[in-house]
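Students often ask why we bother encoding 3D structure as a string. The short answer is that it lets us treat folding as translation between two languages. Here is a chain of 72 residues written in the first language.
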Amino acid sequence: MLYRMKYEYITYSPTLKGFANKKPDPVEVLEKLNEYGAAGWELVAVTTLSGNTGASYGAATSGIVYTFKRPY
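And here it is in the second language, the structure alphabet:
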């Protein structure tokens, strides 16, 4: 008999600050990671999103998405 565990997922996207080199506030991110961890969420992925800056040298980071899961 196979046991299939079901999960629920949630994402968190911090606000990025700065002009040319946008970064999230590390204190804000750490607080949110600890909050989700205390509620039973497990961090499973961190994904950076790229946006078009219009520059010929490439795209800048336009967002970061933290994905969490926990048993349903």
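Translate back mentally: The chain has a mean pLDDT of 86. Keep this in mind for the problem set.
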